[in-house]
Amino acid sequence: MYNLDGRSALVTGGAVGIGRRIATRLAEEGCDVAIIDIDITGAEETADAIVRIGRRCMVLSADIGDFAEVQAAVGEMRARYGKIDIVSNNAAVVSVGSVMELAAEEWRRVFRINADGAFHICKAVVPHMVERRFGRIINTASWFGKIGKPNYAAYSASKFAVIGLTQSLAAELAPLGVTVNAVCPGTIVGTRMRDDADRKSVEQGLPTARERESLIPIGRVGVPDDIARVVAFLASDESSYMTGQSINVTGGLWMH
Q1: What is the pLDDT, as a whole number, of residue 41?
Q2: Percent of the chain clearing pLDDT 90 (strictly above)
Q3: Does the annotation mark 152 as catalytic?
Q4: What is the arithmetic mean of pLDDT over 175-204?
Q5: Which domain holds residue 100?
């Protein structure tokens, strides 16, 4: 649909869930893919699916919270594919709990992956994209990055940071051929993060995703493919006049 033949895409957190579907959707659109993840088994399963689609895929083990590891992984991708056209900054962790009970170490853990990780990937790939005067960066934020919610302070604040990074970097890179946008998922099921959040919610007497489904105007929870469709659009030339945007994919649950 979007004719991404010949382009190469880097997807973080591509082992499972939303990241896996982003990676396979980009492959379906014609991309060769590189996956950065610490879950090598899951990443290799995604890679096998991409190879069956008929595209190349390489798996890179790296902790995105460590800039040196990110630089090394990005270097490996460039060495093999020659270029990086598209980045999907998708890897993230969630934290559920009140601020009064939130440990400082937990706050730092969430920011290290969600905010620092996105920054590290951008910092590593942007010089290459600027040199080529082409690039598409798509950050996975959240609707919780637009409105704070009780018991999600660390996660919400980290996703606000991702949106801020998206807007600042978009303004810097707009004259240089690189667009930077974000996708803001709502209540998405079928992911490891959702399972983790639901488990923590049950432990604390909070509602699960399915228990909140009736609040969604469209009438259903989301699935990873709902997010992958928007990422594919933002990766394509169809979105070439869009940058600095944070697009809600929430079924109407959040409209700002």
Answers
A1: 98
A2: 88
A3: no
A4: 86
A5: 8-188+227-238
